[in-house]
Predict the 3D structure of the following.
Amino acid sequence: EINLYLRLALIAMNSWSISSGELMNILLKYPDRSQQEIADMLNIEQNSASGRYKRAHVEEMLLMDSAFRDKLSKRLS
């Protein structure tokens, strides 16, 4: 099941641009930051950050990340 999560995530990740990968890297490091704060960190406008969120499928990726972490912690306990 975990392998399935990873394979499905790779469908989106394989189409990421460098800027999408950069966005996801920052989001995973700073999950509590707002979209405006992330935009400031990337030195871009908030509406540009919003577009990157959509192109990177951020919402779906974060849901998958959360499910993956839950499954992993259950297997390790």
